[in-house]
Fold this protein.
Amino acid sequence: MDIQLVVLRSLHILFGAFWVGTDAFVTFLLLPRLRSLGRDIEQPVTVLLMRILPPALMVSSLIAVVSGIWVTGLTRGWNLDWVSASGSGWVMSAGSVGTFLALVVGFGIIPPLTMRMNKLARAFEGRAPTDEESRQIESLTGRITVLARANSALLIVVVVTMAVARFV
């Protein structure tokens, strides 16, 4: 038994499951329920969650990605000849591209939109938002929601590709 491989694969699966599971739970279940409770409840809870969730998901995703690359290097070799040599190589490559896209969307595109929305929300704290502020908040919320759902769906596809790659 190769203990290094066991540890790396365990890290990859554990942190990948946490990353994808938490992302899907928050995106598809928690945030829609908070939104249905109204802005007075949604906003303070979301602010508190956003203090811990992005760093936790960032660390988890980085551990999952680095350990996954390491496991692949140890099991398939550090050259990329295996990618085009088999169906599993192509499926793993598709999963890797999906992972990269999810990282870009989840940590590169969504956070600036969220920061803009939070800055706007702080501007009318303690008073009712103007019609323009409400329109901007709704627009940003819509964009973030669409991106988050697409990103979560992409992560689920990535998990499936990684799970079935050895059988293709």
Summary: The longest helix spans residues 39-76.
